[in-house]
Amino acid sequence: MSDDSLPAPVPVRTAAVIPAAGRGVRLGPGAPKALRTLGGTPMLIHAVRALAASRSVSLVVVVAPPDGAAEVKSLLDAHALPDRTDFVVVPGGETRQESVKLGLDALPPGHDIVLVHDAARPLVPVDTVDAVIEAVREGAPAVVPGLPLADTVKEVEPAAVPGGPEPVVATPERARLRAVQTPQGFDRATLLRAHETVTDEVTDDAGMVERLGLTVVVVPGHEEAFKVTRPLDLVLAEAVLARRRLNDGY
Q: Hey, which of 17, 37, 198, 243 has its CA 20 to 30 A from 237?
């Protein structure tokens, strides 16, 4: 039998889930964090475009505030997004974990790689997105982008009184630590099993996969994939965006 008679391999398709239901209280009063503007455009739109910039991503599911799905759908419709990518909006839950699960439930069959990305990381470069996807394609069940730490880290005993002194109990070896970012990438079946198995709250989806006893791998992250959490982060994000527009018309 010649190779020409063999069926063509089915391409591995990638979907992205962007939980955007959080209020972002540390940014101060106002709109939900994902709807705060950056360079005149909501952070959520920047995040959606960042994921859709990867040619591997064929579907982006945005998980909106429980009562804000219509508003988020209108927002996506009002901004130019890549034609090659499909976009879906679903209402989220009370916690990030619930929202990600609702986003996963909205995925149609045929997407075997799933990215989970923070809407509050609006400036992640496409090269980072592609590196995560490639590592999952090569067989890793879970992949996170991460950066070495610039600061020494201390493990402390929490203070008895908020704001009080905290005794240091250990100094982890900095060379072995990474500050992880998103998008985090997963084999779809693995991520679904993690969400069905792990019921206690964790800080990220990769942590849920770790609870299954599976290996999570780290690929190089990017300094511009930082999370916009506090007012100073917005200032930095505006500066990065201004530089991009000046340099390459982003």
A: 17
Taking residue 146's Cβ as centre, other Cβ atoms within 10 Å add up to 18
Helical H segments across the chain, by residue range: 43-52, 69-77, 96-105, 126-137, 188-197, 205-211, 231-248
Percent of the chain with pLDDT over 90: 76
| pTM, two decimal places | 0.90
Q: What count of other Cβ atoms lies within 10 Å of the Cβ of residue 228?
A: 28
Question: Rounded to whole angstroms, how far apart are CA atoms 37 and 31?
Answer: 9
Instruction: Tell me what pLDDT residue 51 has.
Output: 97
Q: Is the pLDDT of residue 34 over 90?
A: no
Domains and CATH numbers, the chain: 11-144+180-248 (3.90.550.10)
Per-residue model confidence as pLDDT tens digits over 111-137: 999 999 999 999 999 999 999 999 999
Burial class from Cβ neighbours inside 10 Å (0-12, 13-18, 19+) for residue 45 reads: buried
- Six token digits for residue 160: 């008895």
pLDDT digits 0-9 by tens, 62-77: 999 888 899 999 999 9
Please tell me the distance from the alpha carbon of residue 59 to that of residue 143, in angstroms, as a whole number. Answer: 19
Residues in a beta bridge with 243: none
- State the chain's mean pLDDT as an integer: 91
State the SS3 of 112-175: EEEEECCCCCCCCCHHHHHHHHHHHHCCCCEEEEEEECCCCCCEECCCCCCCCCCCEEECCCHH
Q: Which two tokens stand for residue 56?
A: 């591997």
